[in-house]
Structures are given as C-alpha cells and as structure tokens.
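Pilot study result, target chain (154 residues):
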Amino acid sequence: MADVPEGRINQVAIGQGCMARFFGIPKETFPGRVKSIAPVLSAERRSLRVLFTIDDPDDKLRPGMFAEIGLGTDNREALLVPADAVLHIGRADYVLVSDGENTWRLAEVQVGEPYRREIQILSGLQEGQKLIGKGAILFKPLAVRILQMLEAGR
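Predicted structure:
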C-alpha cells in the first residue's frame, strides 16, 4: 500500500506496472502492479491510497516493511527533457522553447514522472523542439515578470 500525492492521481491506473525498493533490502527491486485505488482522497495527507501486488518469489518481504514505489514502469514512449529546463512558477510548469533564431517563448507544460536527471513531459511540448536546459533557472525572474504582465493584460 502507498499514498500517491493528489497532484499525481491522474498518473495512476489499475493494472499499471510499478517497481518497489524496500528500505530493508535496498539493493533489490521488486516488480508489481497496481491492484486497486481508493475511492476517496485522504483529507489530512491530500493523497490517495493505492494497493499493489508485489512479486516476491524468494519470500524476502515481510508485512510492515517500508518501500519506495516507482509507478509507470511499463515500457512506453515518453518525451523527456532535462529537469533543469522546467521552471515551476505559481501552480504551473514552463519551459523556454525556441521560436526561431534568438527568439524564445514560455510554453506551459504538464510534467510527469522524473527519470534520473530528466523529467517526462505529458503535454505542451513536441518532440524535436529546442529548449533551454541547463541555466533556464537564470531566466525565471524574467519569466515571472512576463507572466505577471500577461495576467495584468499589458
């Protein structure tokens, strides 16, 4: 059983693959699947309880063990960008995308799962688009100002 944060609920589905790494057995991973999803959100934790079935052919796991669960481990096509490229501003995420030679624009994106030093982009960016990766954080104050101006209707 695990709690999935409210902001990630749309990324969980029954039957979805997962990998579990237990704190008591840190060098092994155990594959599994999402078995069921609770019908209500925990008001205190703002999370959703998810039940998993974990494969344990060698009987190494014990009730009550703590684990880190990685969801979405099924093979799939994914658009990954450097995590440094994503700017979190307010309640949204943005990347700086090339609009031609020396011209850049803010593109709102929906992010998915992190993978090593990259993060999955679910929407808002097309494969092959050029973006600013390392160093994008230096443009965050300017991006915030632009968004404020757009919000104010200037």
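One observation from the pilot: Helices lie at 140-152. A full batch analysis is planned for the follow-on phase.
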